[in-house]
Amino acid sequence: MSAAPVVLAATLPPPQTPPVEYSSISPILIVLGLAFVGILVEAFAASSARRAIQPVLAVLGFVAAFVAVVLLHSRRATLVSGALAIDGPTLFMQGTILLFAVLAVMLVAERRLDSSGGAIVAAAAITPGEPGSTAMQTSKAMQTEVYPLMAFSVAGMLLFVGSNDLLVMFIALEILSLPLYLLCGLARRRRLLSQEAALKYFLLGAFSSAFFLYGVAMIYGFAGTVRLGEIADATGTVGENDLYLYLGVALLAVGFFFKIGAAPFHSWTPDVYQGAPTPITAFMAAGTKVAAFGALLRVFYVALGGLRWDWRPVIWGVAILTMIVGAVLALTQRDIKRMLAYSAIAHAGFLLVGLAGTNADGLSGSMFYLVTYGFTTIAAFAVVSLVRTGDGEASDLSQWQGLGRTSPMLAGIFAFLLLALAGIPLTSGFTGKFAVFQAAISGDATPLVVVALVCSAVAAFFYVRVIVLMFFSDPPADGPVVVTQPSLTYATAGVGAIVTLLLGVVPQPLLDLASHAAASGFVR
Amino acid sequence: MNPANYLVLSGLLFAIGSVGVLVRRNAIVVFMCVELMLNAVNLSLVTFSRIHGNLEGQVIAFFVMVVAAAEVVIGLAIILTIFRTRRSASIDDVNLLKY
């Protein structure tokens, strides 16, 4: 290895300002603008006014960005001299993330669940146990910075799925993660658990992004560039630096597997899902998964497509391990949010099965699956936040006994959502799994599909166990209180359940949309 | 001097950082070890930039510094709230979420 001559600025051509296609990145710009306006509102509006202004502003901003995505639907190009890519998969996932963001804002804005305000703490600096902290627990106030933080996180997600460059991808990863670390620590009830979730998520998240970054450096060392397309060209040539490439791919994969919650990098998922405020958990479960899978698919298909015979066995192994860990450990859970977290891990495994197919069907199947899973899981967490005790949510499974007798409608919706997560026909979970598994079979990954089906059966057991608990056991004397007045949370759960049903009965329009978006593939 | 030596040094620093994250108890020290890992990456980025004779690696290193600074702001805020609640920054004490 020999060193090139020292690079001096004087020897290089003068830098040229890259053209910026503002209209094509308008969804990201709108969401970022929303975040900044939100901060200005924080600075200048009164506390009571903020609680009314911020959610409306956030919904309007996300809807505007969604409209921008729809208007851009036929655009296929690389932007900002190749740093960003706008193509079918990008736009499909950006639209999905924005829809999930709207639903999550509705959950966060909910303020009628009990005598106190919503799920978000009155002031993040309250120390539990100090004089006055109980008064703050029941205060109507709320840390309204949640909305700008969510907007920043959504902007990061939109950028993450659209980045065509490992540097932009790393920056986007941080933009989406840093606000989420803070959001996890903002639960109104059970402050200690919430703060602990934030600390664990932060330390492990920073650890994994360091691995991701070392992967970026190694791939830069191999290819001399961080553009995905140019990396793909470099992998086609046989060189002496292959070690850097393989190290880089492995380290990059660690970062991605952490974000999607795949085993053996899943250990943060149950703790964070349990401790975080439930609306934020819903947002994280749906939004982050789409964003991380979007970026993962782009890196593995575009930059590393030529190496697929090298990474395929790894994806197989991780997918199998993830499905088994998710399905088996969910069996032993006593807490409903932890159970849904392990279910999220199992679903990450099913999504990896779609990637293991390494074909265009796998891409469209994964995109379809992300939509179905996101709507179902947001609705499930919405239902979880409706069943309450005096101490906040009734998260222990024993408190859900007999819920089908005391409030049949809510229990019915939840049972339907659990069946969808299990993948029973006539729900979106079935069509999603079918799309992914079919793609994997056509991509010669039949053994993987067999494992996935066995894990689905194991997973179905613990979903059905909750249903049996709700409908076939007697309610305890001091059972939880179910919120009955109509509210935003009910609306969110209803929307999620209706979409789950519709995508189970008439999946074709969305399947067509996904395969149309995937057909043109990723631009380079 | 052979630039590969700097890569070895960067790998060593990265390894020290990641072992530190795994074995140290104090949240602040754990966090400092993460920062050490990021700076180890910066060293290899700059070295690769020298090897390839282009400036991209150096530019990335600047971005990494900014990201690390932003991460410090978030991280210290979170560790501070934990410390105020529990009078301890030991990560062995945050053990309520399990099973």
Automatic annotation (TrEMBL), chain A:
Enzyme Commission number: 7.1.1.-
Superkingdom of the source species: Bacteria
Pfam families xref list: Proton_antipo_M
Keywords attached to this entry: Cell membrane, Membrane, NAD, Oxidoreductase, Quinone, Translocase, Transmembrane, Transmembrane helix, Transport
Any one Gene Ontology cellular component term annotated for this protein: endomembrane system
Subcellular location: Cell membrane; Endomembrane system; Membrane
Residue spans crossing the bilayer: 25-45, 52-71, 91-109, 146-162, 168-187, 199-223, 243-268, 280-301, 313-332, 339-360, 366-387, 408-428, 448-468, 488-506
NADH:quinone oxidoreductase/Mrp antiporter transmembrane domain boundaries: 163-455
Family: Belongs to the complex I subunit 2 family.
Listed NCBIfam families: NDH_I_N (TIGR01770), PRK05777.1-4 (NF004441)
Function: NDH-1 shuttles electrons from NADH, via FMN and iron-sulfur (Fe-S) centers, to quinones in the respiratory chain. The immediate electron acceptor for the enzyme in this species is believed to be a menaquinone. Couples the redox reaction to proton translocation (for every two electrons transferred, four hydrogen ions are translocated across the cytoplasmic membrane), and thus conserves the redox energy in a proton gradient.
Subunit note: NDH-1 is composed of 14 different subunits. Subunits NuoA, H, J, K, L, M, N constitute the membrane sector of the complex.
Protein name per UniProt: NADH-quinone oxidoreductase subunit N
Provenance organism: Frankia nepalensis
From TrEMBL, chain B:
GO biological process terms held by the UniProt record: ATP synthesis coupled electron transport
Keywords, sorted A to Z: Cell membrane, Membrane, NAD, Oxidoreductase, Quinone, Translocase, Transmembrane, Transmembrane helix, Transport
Membrane-related topology note: Multi-pass membrane protein
Signal sequence, start to end: none
Enzyme Commission number(s) of this protein: 7.1.1.-
Principal place of residence: membrane
UniProt keyword annotation of Protein transport present: no
InterPro entries the record matches: NADH_UbQ_OxRdtase_chain4L/K, NUOK/Mnh_C1-like
Coiled-coil region: none
Subcellular location: Cell membrane; Membrane
GO cellular component annotations of the record: NADH dehydrogenase complex; plasma membrane
Molecular function GO terms recorded: NADH dehydrogenase (quinone) (non-electrogenic) activity; quinone binding
Annotated TM spans: 6-23, 28-48, 60-83
Main function: NDH-1 shuttles electrons from NADH, via FMN and iron-sulfur (Fe-S) centers, to quinones in the respiratory chain. The immediate electron acceptor for the enzyme in this species is believed to be a menaquinone. Couples the redox reaction to proton translocation (for every two electrons transferred, four hydrogen ions are translocated across the cytoplasmic membrane), and thus conserves the redox energy in a proton gradient.
Protein family according to the UniProt entry: Belongs to the complex I subunit 4L family.
Subunit structure: NDH-1 is composed of 14 different subunits. Subunits NuoA, H, J, K, L, M, N constitute the membrane sector of the complex.
NCBIfam families reported for this sequence: PRK05715.1-2, PRK05715.1-3, PRK05715.1-5
Name the record gives this protein: NADH-quinone oxidoreductase subunit K
